[in-house]
Automatic annotation (TrEMBL):
Location of the active site: 141, 166
Keywords: Lyase
Source organism (scientific name): Streptomyces botrytidirepellens
Signal peptide: none
InterPro entries: Aldolase_TIM, DapA-like
Family: Belongs to the DapA family.
Organismal lineage: Bacteria, Bacillati, Actinomycetota, Actinomycetes, Kitasatosporales
Chain positions recorded as pyruvate binding sites: 53
CDD domains: DHDPS-like
Name of the featured protein: Dihydrodipicolinate synthase family protein
Length: 300
């Protein structure tokens, strides 16, 4: 398999779409499609349905399948579709196979939520999923600082379709070492903590970054990407300074309002309802006004 086109797609802004709900609390198919079209029309070329900003853990299996199918249909070849899969191995494998059947090109494997994760067990978990879909690109979502680069190197040797890593440990120095221990050129390194971490991670090896903010302002995220690709860190940091208050709201209290703030901004733009599912919760009125004020003046 030639995974070059998929590697190229990962070295970009990897959008994590929100999952909008209708007045009954069900997934709003029409709005989901409209939000995806807005991303695609804005220049996004990689989307991850069923990511954390998409409330993966709050969706039913049927809803995740629906989001996968809607994303592939709406992308229509305009963007690579990287489907979030996870939970127990059998569930993750079933979801990966469904993603392949639906026409997706890649899967992102969510961090294992089991309380007891050994390093070898982490490799075994991802290997079972990757071997079940050898024609799909596979991207581990790595949030565990205890996993070492050598473990990923071994996984990559066993599974050629493990082509990239969404690295989300908040430590740029650790990322730099991990990437080099695993194989800097072997994998596509995606900064998994979005725009606030993108410049520092880019400086030491990342070539793409994930984004939830891109749902609100595709141009802002793509402007940062352009600056980073040009090596213009001053320009990238101007974007960083612009979005920092918004991203700080999302990151507060261990990212309790990560999704809520994005949906609130979309609601302020009349693009979708602000509803989220437990364990997330709506913002109180003062913070709603703050979000609406923060996005004023952005290139929307």
């Amino acid at each position: 398999m030639d995974f070059t086109p998929l590697r190229t797609a990962l070295a970009d802004v990897v959008a994590i779409p929100v999952t909008p709900y209708d007045a009954t609390g069900a997934v709003d198919r029409t709005t989901y499609r409209a939000l995806l079209r807005r991303l695609l029309d804005g220049g996004v070329r990689a989307v991850t349905p069923n990511g954390n900003t998409g409330e993966f853990y709050a969706l039913t299996l049927e809803e995740r399948r629906l989001c996968t199918e809607l994303s592939v249909e709406e992308a229509g070849g305009r963007a690579a579709v990287l489907v979030g899969v996870g939970q127990d191995v059998a569930t993750a494998v079933d979801a990966a196979r469904h993603a392949q059947e639906a026409g997706a090109q890649m899967v992102m494997v969510h961090q294992p939520v089991h309380p007891y994760v050994s390093q070898d067990g982490w490799v075994d978990y991802h290997r079972e999923i990757a071997e079940a879909v050898p024609e799909l690109g596979v991207v581990p979502y790595l949030r565990n600082p205890m996993i070492e680069g050598a473990a990923l190197a071994g996984l990559g040797e066993a599974c050629p379709n493990v082509i990239g890593v969404k690295y989300a440990v908040p430590d740029a120095a650790r990322f730099a070492a991990f990437a080099r221990d695993a194989g800097l050129d072997r994998f596509v390194w995606v900064a998994g903590l979005a725009e606030l971490y993108a410049p520092s991670y880019w400086a030491v090896g990342a070539t793409g970054f994930t984004s939830g903010l891109v749902n609100v302002a595709p141009k802002v995220s793509l402007d940062m990407l352009g600056a980073l690709r040009a090596g213009d860190y001053a320009a990238a940091m101007k974007v960083w300074e612009q979005i920092r208050p918004f991203e700080d709201l999302r990151a507060a209290r261990q990212s309790a309002n990560n999704v809520t703030v994005v949906k609130e901004a979309l609601a302020a733009l009349d693009l979708c309802r602000r509803d989220v599912r437990p364990p997330s919760r709506l913002l109180p009125e003062p913070q709603r006004a703050e979000v609406a004020e923060l996005i004023q003046g952005w290139a929307l």
